[in-house]
């Protein structure tokens, strides 16, 4: 796993020139995902489960 991680880190560094842009992209994707989840939760709130007796 460490070898794969080093190869991927090297590829990111070679493509972008630094890790700063990779961090920015990661943070932007995380924030976008969070905003989308909150938006869907507000648009369509879940209903509480209905308990039925046997």
TrEMBL record:
Keyword Transmembrane assigned: yes
Protein name (record): Uncharacterized protein
Annotated organism of origin: Bradyrhizobium barranii subsp. barranii
Entry annotated with the keyword Transmembrane: yes
Transmembrane segments: 21-43
Keywords: Membrane, Transmembrane, Transmembrane helix
């Amino acid at each position: 796993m460490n070898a794969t991680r080093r190869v991927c880190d090297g590829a990111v560094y070679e493509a972008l020139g630094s890790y700063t842009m990779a961090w920015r992209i990661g943070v932007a994707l995380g924030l976008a995902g969070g905003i989308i989840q909150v938006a869907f939760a507000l648009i369509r709130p879940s209903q509480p489960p209905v308990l039925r007796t046997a």
